[in-house]
Write a structure and sequence with these properties.
5 domains, 583 residues, Immunoglobulin-like, mainly beta
Length: 583
């Protein structure tokens, strides 16, 4: 009993001691405060009574009220107020509390005054003289002090012989050139806080105008066809552009349009080209306060194209395939197309068609007839000279050429679509197509005749098999040569992909029947075990688990044995008296 009392007393003392333990919590846990902003840090005593609680600085002097700090609180809390934070209020602070037992508890927090990069003394546009050492100014401040770097869209800025970044972050470009003009990015980065700010600064370089070469500088036109002459200069400050022709100022002979940005200026001279004097040399002159520059353009009268070369004619029964090469001289003006002409030898008038390629076909001709072919090119000024005449004769009427065959298959289908194209009918319309096909490994061919159609669909082919195709065209004069083609059907997709229901085979049916039979057997056996105490379950319980019969059965058995004993001890009983089966 005394032992129990001692244990109880010890546990009570431990509980009272745990209840009286004082803990300090500081909220918020982070002491980051932005420059000029305010925040309040709360120190709270929990778990017991304290005599005092207050805030102290790193020198362990109690924090006094000032312009930027103030302390308030009550019996269990002390609140440190940072007002319009300045860098001087940063540092470590201690929250100290004294318990009734005179034990002191401390909790510290470090206050950091932070500031994102700020760009001071902004100069968004800065100008320099070409050839000077340029100091591109960018002053960046922040807490902690940011690291300054520079970027440019077209060039990499790094410490080199031409580019340096001084200790204050300014970019120094030695011997600055017109190509250095553009927009730079001054970047301030505070790595420990993963903060980055940038400021675009435009750099202009005062330089003499620079002519941008024109391609081509040699232009062509013709009388009555207006033309625009254009020249472009890089220039800063802005240049004035004038035009002259063969050394003479144009004055009001043309219209000048200026399109410019801060460093580029473009002038367009519009000429009506009314006389041969307009075909001359033109000079555009640009000048600014730093100097002048000029560029030259030449306008010449364009001519008609020379004849096409290497004209050939490939005759068929009712068509002629014509091919040729372009002219050696386009006359200085782009070729717009070609004129293809043909006629019978016995006629004087030419048939004409306009084409845009160097190969074409003349159709609807008479079989076995002589024809003449010629070709000319044309440009904006007009038609060029014709090529030499090429004579040919169409072929007699015959069977068609072998057809051009193409096929189309679908990955989800075992069908193949066949398309026929009859290039040459032999002078008589194609009446039908004959299609023969078989699997590569098969011996028997399947045949089908396709009338009045340029396609045919082969259906229900074997999945994933290779097929041989033979196609012929036929007109009234006979059959064409055979076109041979090999095609393949795709692999059979999953049944769900082609909309088929899964089929259950014989093995599946037998399996389902066995599962049903086994389930019925288990149900019947369980009922027998539950009602009659027999069956497979009963046998397993008795043999494997050593299960005994229920208690009421044992009692009945003992009663039967007692009855037997009583019957045997009675006076003589007739031997004919039946004895219980339990005996």
């Amino acid at each position: 009993m005394l032992l129990h009392f001692s244990i109880y007393t010890g546990l009570l003392l431990l509980v009272n001691s745990a209840q009286g333990a004082v803990k300090l919590s500081v909220n918020p846990a982070s002491g980051n405060v932005r420059l000029g902003e305010s925040m309040t840090i709360i120190c709270k005593a929990e778990g017991g009574d304290v005599d005092s609680i207050a805030w102290y600085n790193a020198e362990e002097d109690e924090v006094e009220e000032s312009e930027h700090t103030r302390v308030t609180g009550d019996e269990y809390t002390s609140q440190l107020h940072i007002i319009a934070a300045v860098p001087e209020v940063g540092g470590m602070y201690l929250c100290r509390a004294n318990e009734d037992t005179d034990a002191e508890i401390r909790k510290s927090i470090t206050i950091s005054v932070i500031q994102d990069p700020i760009f001071n003394h902004l100069l968004p546009v800065q100008e320099f003289e070409e050839g000077s050492d340029a100091l591109v100014k960018c002053h960046v401040s922040g807490i902690p002090i940011p690291v300054v770097s520079w970027r440019h869209p077209q060039k990499k800025i790094h410490q080199s012989e031409r580019y340096t970044i001084d200790s204050t972050g300014n970019l120094v470009i030695k011997n600055i050139q017109a190509s250095d003009a553009g927009t730079y990015q001054c970047v301030g980065t505070i790595a420990e806080r993963q903060v980055e700010k940038d400021l675009p600064i435009k750099v202009n370089v005062n330089h003499v105008p620079i002519f941008v070469p024109v391609d081509p500088h040699l232009l062509y036109s013709w009388l009555g066809n207006p033309v625009n002459l254009s020249c472009t200069f890089w220039s800063y400050p802005r240049a004035e552009i004038t035009w002259s022709r063969s050394g003479s100022d144009l004055g009001g002979s043309g219209r000048v349009f200026l399109s410019e940005n801060s460093t580029q200026i473009r002038s367009v001279l519009q000429l009506p080209v009314n006389s041969t004097e307009d075909f001359s040399e033109y000079r555009c002159n640009a000048g600014n306060s730093r100097g002048s520059a000029s560029g030259t353009l030449i306008l010449r009268e364009g001519g008609i194209p020379s004849p096409p070369r290497d004209v050939t004619a490939d005759p068929h029964s009712t068509t002629i395939e014509v091919s040729f090469s372009g002219p050696d001289d386009d006359g200085g003006i782009p070729i717009l197309g070609y004129l293809l002409e043909w006629r019978r030898n016995s006629t004087r008038e030419w048939n004409r068609m306009r084409i845009d390629r160097e190969r074409s076909r003349v159709s609807a001709l008479d079989p076995y007839t002589p024809y003449q072919i010629r070709v000319a090119a044309f440009n904006g000024k007009g038609e060029g000279n014709y090529s030499g005449i090429v004579s040919t004769r169409t072929l007699s009427m015959r069977e068609p050429d072998r057809p051009v065959v193409s096929t189309r298959t679908d990955s989800m289908s075992n069908n193949i679509q066949i398309f026929f194209e009859d290039v040459e009918s032999g002078g008589s319309p194609v009446l039908r197509h004959f299609v023969r096909y078989k699997e590569v490994q098969a011996d028997q061919w399947e045949s089908v005749t396709v009338n009045d159609s340029n396609s045919y669909l082969l259906q229900d082919l074997t999945w994933g098999s290779d097929y041989e195709l033979q196609i012929q065209a036929e007109n009234s004069l006979g059959q064409s040569l055979t076109t041979y083609l090999n095609v393949s059907t795709p692999q059979r997709p999953p049944a769900a992909a082609v909309g088929e229901r899964p089929k259950v085979g014989t093995g599946g049916v037998v399996g389902i029947i066995l599962v049903i039979f086994l389930a019925l057997l288990l149900v019947v056996d369980a009922v027998c075990y539950r009602t009659r105490r027999c069956g497979i379950f009963m046998c397993l319980a008795a043999n494997l688990l050593g299960r005994r019969e229920p208690e009421h059965k044992s009692l009945d058995h003992e009663a039967d044995q007692s009855a037997c004993r009583m019957t045997s001890s009675t006076d003589k009983v007739s031997s004919l008296t039946p004895i219980s089966k339990h005996c």
